[in-house]
Amino acid sequence: MKTNHLKMNNGAPIGVVGLGMMGSSIATALLLNGQKVVALSSINSKIDSEAPNRVKKSLVECMKEGLTEKGLPELLENIHFTSDYTDLRTCWLVMECVIEDLNIKKEVYSKIENNVDDTVIITSNTSAIPISILQNHLCVAERFFGMHWAEPAYTSRFLEIVCGEKSPVEMGEQLHSIAKEWGKEPTLVRKDIRGFITNRIMYAMYREAMHLVESGYATIEDVDRACKNDGGHWMTFCGLFRYMDLTGLKAYHAVMKDLFPELSNQTTVPKLIDDIAKKGGNGISNGVGFYTYSKEEALEWEKAFERFSFDINKISLKYAEKTSKI
Hints:
Layout: H1 5-9, E1 14-17, H2 21-32, E2 37-40, H3 46-49, H4 51-64, H5 72-76, E3 79-82, E4 93-96, H6 102-113, E5 121-124, H7 131-134, E6 144-149, E7 159-163, H8 169-181, E8 187-189, H9 198-214, H10 220-229, H11 231-247, H12 249-259, H13 271-278, H14 295-323
Parallel strand pairs: 1-2, 1-4, 2-3, 4-5, 5-6, 7-8
Antiparallel strand pairs: 6-7
Helix pairs in contact: 2-4
């Protein structure tokens, strides 16, 4: 099986199935990079019905920030919003972006495969379910890959291409090259592992952060402050391994001997987040999380995060261009 370059080069669309926050964000990113998009609402919900306005709003912000020279009408003419799976029949690639529920994903995959050719690539934006498990629920398993995006997809250069046990690495390499054409700096996960790359690293940080708070070493505010003012300053520039090179490996080697045995290796969900989840807390979406938010505060944090995403993208692109010449 090979990627259908002919269809892609002839302007065939990409399908995005599931139009919540992430699906809408991915659709926006694709439009900005000249792709035609079939945006399919997988469920009849308020969230999906809000997708056209969400995409339009994001495009307007991207125009203001100079991320595209195209006008809004020109951008929007390349997206078709639908709830009809037969509209995917002209796509060369279909991205699944529904919730992390295996039964729902299985149902969606069945509907997709019933309406596209066997050569069409199908991907999932999952961050929790191994690709090797998901691809076993497809009739043509080798056409299936993970495509794990970051929010907002249109400002982040992050994208993980994940091969499952039955995914040809050569095809993963082709998707990796295509992602570069979308303005991404993608990573290729050649062997499937739960959580892929970034989530395994981030969840190790989340676990240690909660351990420090639960054990009384620091407050939530202290931990956030430390992360912002240390790792938050250099991660965008160089990543973990380059940072150790820049600051001297011998110190890290020495510290690891003493520190690693004392890091948390807890295998259950920390009580800190479990208690909040049991009370229905979901962060800024309902005002109850590790912090509490009024509606006004939640909106201000959303706006600030969007503003920051544009700003950090500009800074990281500036230094990516410089360091690429070293």
